[in-house]
Each structure stands twice: as structure tokens, then as C-alpha cells.
Specification:
The protein is mainly alpha-helical. 54% of the residues lie in helices and 4% in strands. α7 crosses α11.
């Protein structure tokens, strides 16, 4: 099968491949290479040789799907924004579960919000054109990448970021959000 055909694989096939990989990965075969060097070849490695990098990323990175499944199960308006959350987290070097967890805690995943602001950012007074803009802006701030708020968030642990965000007002807040993060 050539790369062109593999790139046309549907999402159902990717799910099947993912399941096959997770089941068969433990059954690695050890092959003796020249000069008595031992080399391990897994089923996963054999599949990866046939896939393009984009297809491999789809198989191995399920973060956006996990977020969307969480939001969908609870009928939350943020369903469909999983990829945006992951993109912003990766771009800003932050935990990919932080922003969605804050949104769940602050607005029930977008069910109760003002001004397209699922994070309650700026005491809900800051207006955003849409969820994409809100995710981008709050992500830049909480990662310490906005010069105006870097003194509160830059180079902080998740707990410290959450404390600065709302913990001084509500001491249980960091642990509440971190518990939500563990649900994704």
C-alpha cells in the first residue's frame, strides 16, 4: 500500500489501527542484527513505516478527541473545540487540560457564560468574539506569554497558576480544577 492510499484512510480505520496497535504492541519480536546487536521491532513500528507523519499523529494523539468526548457526554457548548484547546496549549507550552478544566469549573463548559467568555476571565467582563478568541487569549495569559500578566503566571506550576487565577479568593479552587483535569 502506498502513502497516497494510506492518507485516504478514514477515521474508522484509524480507530481500528489504534486498537490493533494497543493490543499487539506488547508482542514485540526481537531480531538479532549484525555484530550481535539486538534490535526490537514492534507491530507499531511496522505500521508507522507505511504512514505519513500526519496519519501517525492522528493515531497517537487523542487529546482533542478526549476533550470533545467529555464535552459531548455532558452536552457542553465547548464540544468541537478540543483541537483548539490542544493547539493553544501546545503553542504556549502549557498543560493541555488546564484551559478546558477552568472552562468546566467556571461556566460548565460554556453552558453558563457571558460575552463568549467560558473562563470567567476578567470577572466575566472581558468580551470575546467567539470561543476561539477566548481560548487563544486566556491561553496566552495563563502560560505567562502575555507581558501584562506574565508576573502572575510565567514559570509557575499548574497549582500556582490556578492559585493566581482564583485561589486567593477561593482556596479550594486549584484542587477543584485539578480534579476536573484528571477527568479528561
Amino acid at each position: 500500500m502506498n502513502n497516497e492510499k494510506i492518507n485516504k484512510i478514514g477515521s474508522n480505520t484509524l480507530v481500528v489501527l489504534t486498537l490493533a496497535v494497543s493490543v499487539l504492541m506488547p508482542f514485540n519480536t526481537v531480531l538479532a542484527a549484525e555484530n550481535s546487536v539486538t534490535k526490537t521491532t514492534s507491530f507499531f513500528a511496522m505500521i508507522v513505516n507505511f504512514l505519513t507523519p500526519g496519519a501517525v499523529a492522528q493515531i497517537t494523539d487523542d487529546r482533542a478527541a478526549r476533550l470533545d468526548a467529555y464535552f459531548a457526554k455532558r452536552n457542553m457548548p465547548l464540544e468541537g473545540y478540543g483541537a483548539k484547546f490542544v493547539e493553544v496549549a501546545d503553542k504556549n507550552g502549557m498543560d493541555w487540560k488546564l484551559l478546558p478544566a477552568i472552562a468546566v469549573r467556571e461556566s460548565s463548559g460554556g453552558k453558563r457564560l457571558m460575552n463568549n467568555n467560558p473562563f470567567g476571565w476578567g470577572s466575566c467582563k472581558i468580551k470575546f468574539a467567539n470561543f476561539d478568541e477566548a481560548i487563544e487569549e486566556v491561553g496566552a495569559n495563563l502560560s505567562g506569554n502575555d507581558p501584562d500578566t506574565a508576573k502572575y503566571y510565567k514559570d509557575k506550576t499548574v497549582f500556582q497558576v490556578l492559585w493566581a487565577y482564583n485561589g486567593s479568593v477561593m482556596p479550594s479552587y486549584p484542587k477543584e480544577v485539578m480534579n476536573i483535569m484528571n477527568m479528561f
